[in-house]
Specification:
This protein has 565 residues and is an alpha/beta fold. The protein contains 23 helices and twelve strands. It is 49% helix and 9% strand. Strands 3-4-5-6-8-9-10-11 form an eight-stranded parallel β-barrel, surrounded by eight helices. Helix 20 packs parallel to helix 22. The chain is globular, with a radius of gyration of 25 Å.
């Protein structure tokens, strides 16, 4: 009865006030604008080409679908889960296994819930340290030579409870075999979760070529995905990396369109190799790079899930296979060496947008990453940014906090419709590979990047610390000293391993060469257990004389410091 009385009192109170309309607000704004024209002063045109209104109302939602769906319900516009949670991730770039382990255990004790193993340049191309260019050994990440290195790097880290991310390139099977071998030794194969794999088309787009070729790359992805579906159901292997388009300057609609086109290309390639859609979709992960345009970024993650659900339904996917796993990461194109401390604020905004948008896992980049290997302060601030969002701001307590907001729902719908049209244009051109070969994707992205650069150069858009409010007294960040003996130590280690007694290794490597599909991955893991190095696995798993895939015009990453001179 008390509730009914309170309701009646509230209704009587509201009845005393005349309702306000959009027309009332518009008249008030135009009076305050004076001689300025409303459309010119307040209506903005986004880089994607659609108008952003200064205010949205319930009328804007009249044609927006899926407003009756809840978080965790198909088509997952409002998130994959009924509650909001995400894995707090950070990339660890220490070159030597023992130091990697020290950093990893420290960071897990101080709030991380997911680890990213960044491999050095030599390991990414399947070279042991004594067979690689000296400059590649330890550059950018962990020097991984054989299984014992990974055992040291992940010592006292429970693979059953800590998800791992291991980004790779076209030579993806050797590091995957080492990780699987370690999980097998520890009895945690079925519990292995996180992601290991790569996006062949993204690598082709940014590098200009795939040395192993698309055919061999998709053969490897099919084998790894088939193995994961049989043995590690929570492990993502089919990667859609929209970050390469983002860093080259693409707008959000083009990023989504390229992501959808890549996802469709991956599905078709793996289905052509005998994998059913139900074995592919659960192992797909999108990797997205973020910007500080909060509303657009929230809308992009929501639209990505909606669009993937539409594509999955076209492949006769069930509601479960329509879920899209998204790993979000701070973008690099807006980060500056000129005032790197402002990068902390940018990364915080990006993290907020990713969480409200419903990411599944998130990496916040250290503020000094743009200038050097991240130092302890940068890593600590980046890690604590996520922890504060979860523990102090309580963003994990509310699912789809932006849901129902007129602006968020309208932008999500408009962005999804625009991206779908651009995706259809890529498909009409023969798919993403053909569009890249013809330069169609590159032309669109280059035009957007040029427009952004002109806006920065002419002051129409602001980058704090770069083209506005720059600190003339700023001193460049000091890089960490180079360990000149690292290459020598790692090369000596690789040489010693290769010349040690390894029982039956030749037979294991021969079996690895002869097997196909999931059996090939199993054979490679057994070879790793027998002592095979990463370089030996690469030689056994990939053809000696590959047919490379090439495009004429690779994407060029854009940096804000390169625009303002």
């Amino acid at each position: 009865m008390d509730q009914e009385n309170q309701h009646n009192s509230r209704e009587r109170l509201l009845a005393e006030f005349a309702p306000s309309s959009y027309a009332d607000w518009r008249r008030l704004v135009e009076r305050e604008l004076g001689d300025a024209v409303f459309e010119q002063a307040l209506v903005q045109r986004s880089v994607e080409g659609f108008e952003r209104q200064p205010i949205y109302t319930a009328a804007d939602l009249a044609m927006v679908p899926y407003l009756d769906r809840l978080p965790g319900q198909s088509p997952y516009l409002r998130g994959n889960r009924a509650h909001n949670s995400w894995a707090i991730c950070q990339a660890i770039t220490d070159a030597e296994p023992h130091q990697f382990n020290h950093t990893a255990r420290h960071d897990l004790a101080y709030g991380l819930t997911m680890l990213e193993i960044t491999l050095d340049a030599a390991s990414r191309i399947g070279r042991d340290a004594d067979h690689a260019e000296a400059a590649d050994v330890g550059r950018g990440g962990l020097s991984l030579i054989h299984l014992a290195d990974l055992e040291i790097a992940l010592d006292d880290i429970d693979l059953a409870h800590v998800p791992l991310r291991m980004p790779t390139n076209e030579i993806c099977l050797p590091p995957a075999a080492l990780l699987i071998a370690l999980a097998r030794r520890r009895g945690h194969t079925a519990a292995l979760h996180g992601s290991i794999g790569f996006d062949p088309l993204a690598t082709l787009a940014v590098a200009g070529m795939l040395q192993a070729g698309l055919t061999a790359s998709y053969d490897a992805l099919a084998a790894l995905t088939s193995w994961a579906h049989q043995n590690a159901p929570r492990l993502a292997t089919v990667i859609v990396d929209t970050g390469v388009y983002h860093e080259a300057g693409a707008d959000t609609a083009d990023e989504l369109a390229c992501g959808l086109a890549a996802a469709v290309a991956h599905v078709r390639a793996l289905m052509a190799r005998g994998l059913p859609f139900a074995s592919i979709a659960p192992h797909m992960e999108w990797q997205v790079a973020l910007d500080t345009q909060i509303f657009s970024e929230i809308a992009r993650l929501r639209a990505a899930r909606l669009l993937w659900a539409k594509v999955a339904a076209a492949f006769d996917g069930t509601a479960a296979t329509q879920r899209l796993r998204i790993h979000a990461r701070s973008g690099r194109r807006n980060k500056s060496r000129r005032d790197p401390y402002v990068n902390m604020l940018r990364a915080t905004l990006e993290a907020f947008a990713a969480v409200i948008g419903g990411c599944d896992s998130l990496t916040v980049a250290a503020f000094d990453e743009v200038a050097r290997e991240p130092q302890d302060l940068g890593r600590r601030v980046a890690r604590n940014t996520q922890i504060i969002l979860a523990r102090e701001s309580h963003l994990a307590d509310v699912a789809d906090a932006g849901g129902g907001a007129y602006a968020i729902e309208t932008l999500s719908d408009t962005l999804a419709r625009t991206a779908w049209q651009r995706f259809q244009a890529i498909e009409a051109a023969g798919g993403l590979q053909r569009a890249l070969e013809a330069g169609l994707v590159q032309q669109r992205i280059a035009a957007t990047a040029a427009s952004r650069a002109a806006d920065l150069q002419q002051g129409r858009s602001v980058r704090v610390g770069v083209n506005r409010f720059a600190d003339p007294q700023h001193e460049p960040l000091a890089a960490a000293p180079v360990d000149l003996q690292l290459t020598e130590r790692r090369a000596h280690h690789a040489h010693s391993v290769r010349h040690s007694m390894r029982h039956g290794l030749d037979g294991f490597l021969a079996l690895t060469r002869d097997q196909q599909g999931a059996e090939r991955v199993d054979a490679a893991a057994e070879a790793a257990i027998a002592g095979a190095t990463l370089g030996e696995l690469a030689a056994a798993l990939y053809p000696a004389h590959p047919v490379a895939s090439r495009i004429t015009t690779p994407l060029i990453p854009q940096g804000v410091d390169d625009v303002i001179t």
